[in-house]
Specification:
It is built from 16 helices and four strands. With 367 residues, the protein is mainly alpha-helical.
């Protein structure tokens, strides 16, 4: 019993230290980006450490610094300089700082059990952070803000400098945009929607603020609001296919039959522009299914479900509408139940499930 108690205490100390070290290394990582960014003359707008409820927020000049409750990731918002060596220094800074901490911990020979726990906490957390940051990935927050890892930025600068410069030219960071990105990253959806509404109201003819607002509304399951925001832009000659897909999806998720003719047109145009896009295929297949054309919708839903990039929530949507399409085909009723069960397993709270269950208990899919 004594040994078991000592082991439990040691584990508890290690866990507490790991949480503290995680918060500290995230802070060091983001502070390094900010410091080197300032030294390289990049324009700095904001630093957020963690996610969830904002614990502390203060401004240093025009830079908003946020500390949030959960020690999970961080973001430094700055305008790149456009000079490769300067920007590579900025995006390498966080990784370099944590690599230094990892090296120091690996060389440290503590003389106590607490020191040993601290050493291994630093080694563990720094190793994970470095791996996740070096790995070139693109992340999305609430489907509205795209965040590239440091590795993704560095790879693009090394392999496609002109593309990197085009990306910079397309970035128009302002204080308002930075505050919005920080709210999205922190998971503060309510504040993000308020900021996005203000941006959209200030530029009512601009599709980009409207698209950002609509993405947040979709993530919050405010389907009709998202439809109303995007529909004025959906028939423009230069409209992005993603806008047509999103407004069609918003119409689908209202399950309002009066919106389906517009969804049919916009989903067809979006899917035609990118016939291998799983999200576009899902929206098009769901639209056709709700229009009473499950035989046309089912192949598209099957295409969407074959994508290896589906998240669990996305997979739940796809399988839910696939179940509805199969249910309308008399020889596929058993498959329909299997796909409905799969949707429920992937996301029991999928917003499409209540209405799809109701329709599958009925006789047919209503046109």
């Amino acid at each position: 019993p004594g040994d078991a108690g000592a082991s439990a205490a040691a584990i508890g100390i290690f866990v507490v230290m790991t949480v503290a070290v995680t918060a500290l290394l995230i802070s060091v990582h983001e502070a390094s980006h900010a410091l080197i960014g300032l030294l390289m003359r990049a324009e700095l707008f904001g630093v957020t450490i963690g996610r969830g409820r904002r614990v502390l927020g203060f401004e240093i000049g025009s830079v908003l610094v946020e500390i949030r409750a959960m020690p999970s990731g961080g973001v430094t918002i700055l305008q790149p300089t456009g000079t490769r060596w300067r920007d590579m220094a900025v995006f390498s800074a966080g990784i370099a700082a944590e690599a230094s901490a990892l090296t120091a911990a690996a060389l440290w020979q503590p003389g106590s059990a607490i020191g040993s726990s601290l050493r291994w906490s630093i080694i563990l957390v720094a190793s994970i952070h470095i791996l996740l940051n070096v790995w070139p990935r693109t992340l999305t927050a609430e489907s509205a803000a795209v965040v590239h890892t440091d590795g993704a930025h560095l790879v693009k600068m090394m392999t496609d400098l002109e593309g990197w410069r085009r990306d910079i030219d397309a970035i128009e960071l302002t204080t308002d945009v930075a505050r919005l990105v920080q709210a999205i990253h922190g998971g503060d959806t309510g504040a993000a929607i308020t900021l996005a509404e203000e941006r959209a109201a200030a530029s009512p003819a601009d599709a980009e603020p409207a698209a950002t607002l609509a993405a947040l509304l979709l993530a919050s399951h405010r389907w009709r609001d998202a439809f109303d925001v995007l529909s004025p832009f959906a028939d423009a000659s230069d409209v992005e296919p993603a806008i047509q897909n999103n407004v069609a999806w918003a119409a689908v998720m209202t399950f309002d039959p009066t919106l389906l003719p517009q969804a049919e047109r916009w989903s067809e145009q979006a899917f035609s522009s990118a016939p291998t896009n799983a999200a576009f295929a899902n929206t098009r297949g769901a639209t056709l299914t709700l229009l009473g054309r499950p035989d046309d919708g089912l192949p598209l839903l099957e295409l969407a479900s074959s994508s290896k990039k589906l998240t669990r929530p996305d997979g739940a949507f796809v399988n839910a509408f696939r179940a509805l399409a199969e249910h309308a085909t008399s020889d596929r009723r058993e498959a329909a139940q299997d796909h409905l069960a799969l949707a429920e397993a992937l996301d029991p709270n999928c917003p499409a499930l209540p209405e799809i269950r109701r329709r599958m208990l009925g006789v047919t899919v209503a046109a």
